[in-house]
Design brief:
By secondary structure, the protein is α+β, with helices and mostly antiparallel strands. The chain has 3 helices and 7 strands, in the order E-E-H-E-E-H-E-H-E-E. The protein has one domain. The strands form 2 sheets. It has a 5-stranded mixed β-sheet with strand order 4-3-5-6-7. Strand 1 and strand 2 form a beta hairpin. Bound molecules: zinc ion. Zinc ion binds next to helix 3.
């Protein structure tokens, strides 16, 4: 069961028409980008979307390219350079970075594909302490990711 708030984003049949429209807007925003895109919302409500894309930089709203994310031992972001295997280049990793940059304790991410194995394995270890990121996609519905780090 989804809460009334969540029904903005997802139903039992996948993302809502409105969520798909958000992803289409994100896709249109990043002209020529063929890989993953998403829309991030701090707190609840589908307002003021921050469009994100995969790659070295997540877009003008923020991302790992701006720094201020912990890297290395014990954290999901590796200290190596940007690569497909480093969650720092994934939409989800950029979403986590925006949470750090905005000191957000809760955020919602709509993404245009299911999370990859790297994100499933490491996203929780990238998040700000005690924070929660809820990820919605057609394929996976709702995935609640709670930070593995506590303050
Ligand atoms: Zn990923």
């Amino acid at each position: 069961m989804f809460t009334s708030e969540e029904l903005l984003y997802v139903t039992d049949h996948g993302l809502t028409v409105r969520a798909h429209a958000m992803l289409a807007a994100a896709r249109a925003y990043f002209v020529g980008h063929q890989e993953a895109v998403g829309a991030l919302f701090i707190e609840h409500g589908m307002q003021y979307p921050m469009f994100l894309k995969s790659g070295y930089e997540g877009g003008p709203w923020g991302g790992t390219q701006r720094g201020s994310v912990p890297r290395g031992r014990g954290w999901g972001f590796t200290s190596g350079g940007p690569s497909q295997g480093n969650i720092a280049t994934h939409v989800e990793g950029h979403a986590s970075a925006v949470m750090w940059q905005r000191t957000a304790g809760y955020a919602v991410l709509i993404v245009d594909r299911p999370m990859c194995s790297v994100c499933h394995r490491s996203l929780h270890a990238t998040l700000p302490p005690n924070s929660t990121l809820v990820v919605y996609s057609d394929e996976e519905g709702r995935t609640i990711v709670r930070a593995s780090h506590a303050r």
